Amino acid sequence: ELCTAIGPLMAEYDRISTTFINLGAPGTPARDAALPQFIDDTTDWVGRAEAVAEQHPGVQPRLSRTLQRHLDDLWLLANNIAPGQEQSYDKAAWIDSMVAYGGPQSICNELGAGW
Q1: DSSP label at 87?
Q2: pLDDT tens string 57-107
Q3: Is this model's pTM higher than 0.90 or not?
Q4: How many CB atoms neighbour CB 1 within 10 A?
Q5: What contacts 85, CB < 8 A, 6 or more positions away?
Q6: 8-47 residue pLDDT tens
Q7: Is-contact 113 7, C-beta < 8 A?
Q8: Residues ≥6 apart with Cβ < 8 Å to 65
Q9: Which residue from 2, 33, 39, 85 lies 20 to 30 Å from 63 (Cα-Cα)?
């Protein structure tokens, strides 16, 4: 049930993050201009995704742990990222969030409820 409930949100954030990344390298004018909206979108999305996850307690532990790790990493990124050149901790938070994303993605895909 969590996979079905979270799937549309995961697809939504895929679009948000892809749109932002496709604006260019960190520190470019287009990326810096879009950063406030990306931060707002990410913070809002994390809150909505956490609310959905909280409505589905008792799911497979690996699914809940990796989903929460993904959300936590994105929350940290949104709270620390700033215009200009990418900082090593921002890059690390992003990469870790993508690694954690693999948990829900692979588990939900195996259950036939991927996005």
Answers
A1: P
A2: 999 999 999 999 999 999 999 999 999 999 999 999 999 999 999 999 999
A3: yes
A4: 10
A5: 26, 27
A6: 999 999 999 999 999 999 999 999 999 999 999 999 999 9
A7: yes
A8: 103
A9: 39
